[in-house]
Write a structure and sequence with these properties.
Helix 4 packs parallel to helix 6 and helix 6 packs across helix 9. By secondary structure, the chain is of the alpha/beta class.
């Protein structure tokens, strides 16, 4: 952990803040006056992000906790370390994620994309839930995606633990499935926390060039071309994260799934639109992750 000075500011924890829209959101939140708590895998990227924050908002307090989200026990340890250091957390932003173009299985035996994009934020939120409730009014913001509409039919019992191989061509369906799970998680958590003072909302950040698969050799030049054409501006997605984290309107609204482009409410694709399915997913996830809690 890298620790900077403490201050009486809103404390905002954001995962995946050393790259892409997460980093842009962190910079905006620093300008907003937040005390930032960041998770990172790479010290080099964390140092670069801290330097960028210092450049736009000097003296911003920043705590960096290093963790690999594919290691679920480490995620829980990190959550406990954060809770021990910060008895108050005003906003948790679940932003970290990846799009893999081949199947990789974690040491825990789970598909890497499911572990990083869904199990890890579920466990981190679960570990910090008592802190967030005690910090109310507080917020939980999760980055979903309309890529969820590419997930196809979803069987909770079968697909949650699916580790079947896939190719780059088939990866979008698996990535979309993880985003579907994030949306279902967010909506069910909102139901569970209704009346506690903790609001829970989810967003689709839209198409962002920073979200292109970095594992593909042609991703960087394609991203550069799209940026030049003005397509996939990551500032829009980052702005939506900041809005859900700070806008007073979203301090009152809970259980929303919104578009970054217009902040309009989105209707999630099935089975995320079904309350009973969301409960079933929660129960299966709780059972699956019980050994880490």
């Amino acid at each position: 952990m890298v620790l900077c000075q403490m201050s009486a500011r809103p404390k905002i924890l954001i995962t995946g803040a050393t790259d892409g829209i997460g980093q842009l959101a962190a910079l905006s939140l620093a300008r907003y006056g937040a005390h930032l708590i960041l998770t990172a895998r790479s010290k080099a990227k964390a140092d670069q992000t801290c330097a960028a924050i210092e450049a736009v908002a000097p003296s911003t307090p920043v705590d960096v906790h290093f963790v690999d989200f594919s290691d679920l026990a480490a995620v829980v340890r990190t959550g406990k370390a954060i809770a021990a250091r910060h008895p108050r957390i005003d906003v948790l932003i679940n932003n970290a994620g990846l799009h893999a173009f081949e199947q990789r299985v974690t040491a825990d035996g789970y598909a890497e994309m499911i572990a990083v994009n869904y199990f890890a934020p579920w466990l981190l939120t679960d570990t910090l839930l008592e802190t967030l409730v005690h910090s109310a009014p507080s917020r939980i913001v999760t980055v979903g995606s309309e890529a969820s509409r590419q997930s196809g039919a979803f069987d909770i019992e079968k697909d949650l633990l699916d580790i079947a191989p896939f190719t780059a061509r088939g990866s979008s369906r698996i990535y979309g499935r993880t985003k579907l799970l994030d949306i279902m998680f967010s909506l069910e958590l909102a139901r569970q926390l209704d009346g506690t003072g903790v609001v829970v909302n989810c967003l689709c950040p839209g198409f962002n060039v920073t979200g292109l698969g970095r594992e593909l050799s042609f991703a960087r030049p394609v991203a550069g071309l799209l940026t030049w054409l003005g397509i996939g501006n990551p500032e829009r997605g980052a702005g939506a994260i900041v809005r859900l984290a700070t806008d007073p309107a979203f301090g009152k609204q809970t259980g929303a799934y919104v578009s970054a482009k217009s902040a309009r409410l989105l209707t999630p694709v099935a089975p995320a639109d079904n309350e009973e399915a969301r409960r079933q997913l929660w129960e299966k996830t709780t059972e699956t992750l019980s050994r880490f809690r």
